[in-house]
Amino acid sequence: MVLALLLTGTLTAQASSAASVVSKPRNFTRSAHLMGSHFTFTAVSTDDSLAWRAIRAGIREAQRIDRLCSYWDSTSQITQVNRAAGLRPVVVDQEVYDLIARTLKLSKLSNGAFDITFAGGEKIYKFDRQEHVALPAPEVVRASVARINYEKVLLDPVAHSVMLQDKGMRMNLAGILQGYGVRRAQALMRQRGIQGGLINGSGDVSCWGKQADGSGWRIAIGDPAFPQSVSSWLTVSDMAVVTAGNYEQYFTVRGQYYGHIINPHTGYPATGLRSVTIICPDVELADGLDEVVFVLGPEAGLAFINSLKGVDCTLITNDGRTLASKNMKLNYYSTPGQPAPATSSLKP
What we know:
- By secondary structure, the chain is of the alpha+beta class.
- Among the domains are: 77-172, T-fold (Orthogonal Bundle), CATH 1.10.3980.10; 216-344, ApbE-like domains (T-fold).
- Helices cover 33% and strands 26% of the residues.
- It has helices at residues 2-22, 48-69, 77-83, 94-109, 138-144, 174-191, 283-296, 298-306; strands spanning 26-34, 37-45, 90-91, 131-132, 153-156, 161-164, 196-201, 204-208, 217-222, 230-236, 239-245, 250-253, 256-259, 273-280, 312-317, 322-324, 331-332, 343-344.
């Protein structure tokens, strides 16, 4: 009997030891091409089967949202709305209706700096990284934005319908759709029991919980002047960090740099900034705010962010300055042979 008890105790200790090894959390990561971009999904779990199932669910959710709202998918509900522009309202899913309604709130808040009807603008620029002789004529630029006006997106909350008031108008949710996809994928992964994780949708990062070793998530911010290098970093949890650059698609005129983000009011490329990073709890909101800041420019953009509760940002200007919102805390790297970035905080 004593022997049996000793054996039982030994087996129990061995099982306990094995369980402790098995229960040690790990980071499980998978990449996927979604929404025309590179996505990375990381799940922290002690159960590899659970982690992979949750990641697959997140990927499927992003794919579903893309099919539902893609500007390029001929069967999407956004395409259906565009086809009926100036003709009739189109009934859409509640999810699509709500997403469009949120974009219009952001448009109103930013006085039209963010506008999903930008797709109705004429493409008059070629962002080929080359020196151009001149900008298009002023009348051409003015005409290019004639069909951009978020106030002409008509919503019917009873019928859940959307209508573009004028023929030729087009909407494109590209400025916010990746952020929404990341947010929805994260929600599904959490529902499946993933207590910590990170999703990176081509610069739209949202993380929750802790890494496998118990530390927070370290997010790096690139330096536009030195590709593949890092200008600063921060450690976060339960937060979104969205970085957008205006330095891969551009052209120059007499040495002046013009990036691909267009000011919907003027028709001219937004100037003054090369990189915008937004930090806030909502990755969808952050995805839209980076475009707002690009359009407003360094000083007005920073003042706008400082006026919002729970939102911070860091900006890198065309001339290499780093600006940070009043509550922003960053860790800066200095590139070898280059001075550390100058940091300033502007208040509204």
